[in-house]
Fold this protein.
Amino acid sequence: MVAKLDEIWEQVVRAARALGVDDVEAIISGSNEALTRFANNAIHQNVAELTTNLSVRAVIDGRTARASTNCLDRTGVRDVVEQAIAITRLTEPDPDLLPLAEHDSPDPEDYPDRDFDDTAYATPDERAHAVADAIREVESAGQTAAGIYSTGQAGFVIYNSTGLAAMYQETVARFSITAMAADSSGWAKASACNHRDLDPVGLARRAAAKAAASRLPRELDPGRYTVILEPAAVLDLVGQMFMDFSGTAIRDGTSFLNDRIGQKLFGENITIHDDAWHDGQSGAPFDGEGVPRKKLTLVDAGVVREVAYSRQAAALAGVEPTGHGFPLPNEIGEAPMNIVIAGGGSTVEEMVASTDRGILVTRLWYIREVDPYEKIFTGMTRDGTFLVEDGKVTAGLRNFRFNQGLMEMLSNVEALSATERASGEESFDLVAPAMKVRDFNFTEVTRF
Amino acid sequence: MKDLALRALDAVTRRGVTYADARAIEIREQEITTKNGKAGHVSSSESIGIGIRVLAFGCWGFAATDDLSSRGVEAAANLALEIARAGTAARKREVSLAPEEKFEAAWVSPFSIDPFSVPVDQKLGILLAVDEELRHTPGINLAETSMHFERRHQVFASTLGSLIDQTRYLSGAGFTALCYREGEIQKRSYPNSFGGQYQLKGYELVDELRLLDHAPRVAEEAVALHSADQCPEGIFDLIVDSSQLGLQIHESIGHPIELDRVLGTEANYAGMSFLTLDNLNRLRYGSEIVNVVCDARLEHGPGLGTFAFDDEGVPAQGNDIIRNGQFVGYMTSRETAAEVGQARSNGCMRADGWGRLPLIRMTNVSLKPGEQSLEEVMDSPHAIYMETNKSWSIDDKRYNFQFGCEIGWEMRNGKRIRMLKNPSYSGISTEFWNACAAIAGPEHWTLWGVPNCGKGQPEQVMGTGHGASPSRFRSIKIGGAYGG
């Protein structure tokens, strides 16, 4: 496989040199993904996709542009190199563009072990039988199940003409399930690099229990409530702010951290790192230019300490790059993508037990930014929203709309659970705890 | 492409299927952006592959590959069958399809200027001129412009004997000016937010948008918003421009009428719909003047949902969704049509590429123009007028929504009294459409493109079309986004 990749890269270099261009970068990627989808207690969509891609960037006299293709034969390689060079020559020079990155090629032996053959080659039958078992669990509760079970492998290699070659490959599996009763629903999801670490039946049982516990939902007036956000709900909402932890976003004036670095924005119990090497993380330990990722302390006891810098953003800010840049050319620069939110000593059960009146939230949905500087977001609760009274879950609730500022929310955290790899639908996977938050702002109630 | 599609179809039919189709697709895209006077993202991409869908053992199987060798196509065919067979482990009933005819056709979407024939430096020159014009306005920190072009050539072949060759050209362009000052970020976009306007056209769209002409006003408004009053919170008449109304249609009508959502097959991710089957022909969705269609035909306009045939080989159709306020129709597929006893699919199955399975997707879901003049629409004793979407959110059954817009004005008797920043409104879908009091006429109607509609697992991103003209709604909750 490596020999084949090296051969394609050599073709890229030869084709570029034939056109008088020495400075080129290539990203060769491939993936093999499969997903078994179910609804109404039956498998209804069942798919697999095999893809490859070659993306070539040329650098000519301060200009750069990129062309991509999934045609990796000799003609395809030559054509994409010619295209990249042709559009590079037609673009405008960028005085801030840096030469291609020069780094030692990282050694894959040093990477975390996130590539599992069993998961890469999981069969349709394996997924189907796990799904059938999960459906039976929900059906036996008199409910209806919908969800997915996906397995796959994806990898890429970045080459550039300074001699850099950085390669990474990992597997990932996801199982999510919604259990629906007559007037309620429950949801659970997990992801792992090794599909053997997933427990579809356990997740089904959890979703079904939530659906059962939230039947005959009550309607509560909107207002400010103490909420207990399970890790997926924390991910859904807090995950929205990390694109702002970027030198480029700060320079552009689009980040809420403008004029706030070094200030105490959150409570002292909030500490957040970006750590590509964390056990609960996934993704390459180098960025879109092949620069190794550094561990960042984004927030230390409520104070924003560090943000991510691509090579170009770092040069403009006069700091060192952190290894969080996206492939060039791009407008957004960089972002931390391996978020680890430090946990605490509580549990969801203890948070419930310590709450006189509050709301337990399973997941959030359709979150959009209302105010970019105050970092206010709106969205809905979904699939398991519960009333907590006198330390107990007493009823299911109709779902709420919230409009909540993240700085306020993360200043009002009263308790945190141990941290775990969380998986949701509104943000990328991250490592997060459950949180008990006072004065969470629910502004409306919907009809279910 | 034709050979590839037929080869893939043959590979599965030889193995024995109830039904199969193959889509060979070649996509070419180009993206050009600028940011603060510099070229941003300049890129082109090409992708070719085959998606094979089979109905066997009473179950669907789908496999896609870009390994177009004989071995690659045979492997994909085998995998599609293996996946279908695996589905029997959790099968409740055998899939059945509404009948469809056999078609042999070739179609190319109309365009005046092939967008790929225009040199990159010419496109970049236009965007840099707009970018420079935006930054002439003091206070603009960030100017961003973009163009996007796509050509999608697809050959569809099915075991019904259909062989359909379609090529669609798509263009998009727009810009944004952002002003960060004193702890506040304000922005304005033209002609729409999130990339501008997108239509099924060639490069002529860029000329029609007259980007440079609008740059000074848009930049000045972004700066002026810092001095504007905060949008008040309360119940007001609401007037929305056509681009915002396009997104309102998308979220509160387009998604709820997807029959797959109604039947529960999207429940785990996109959600379901309040439009349960008992509502058909019974629910009063809107006021008497509300008429909504779902129309993929070219005669509806060059929308992102315009085509000749959908991805199941069903011809483009125009259907009433809301007629004089009454809910009268869903968007369907061959499978969902059969499930609810509809004689034929109304042709809404679309996939976002060769690697994905077709799903029920919006085509062009449009509010038909009304009979009022723009002055009549604006003529409320006291209203808030809002333009250009800034944020959008709706619950997973599509009842409760909240939209934020980039800019608003307080209106009295049709006159702008003061500019308002951070305007937002919220409500319940059917209550909102029943409050529709005035819709401007066809001269103010625009077919907007939403290029980024997400649905499905694995997620697919689709372009949809929404025609609308400025409209007025009575007694809407305003300003809740900053409430509490």
Notes: The CA atoms of residues 248 and 335 of chain A lie 9 Å apart.
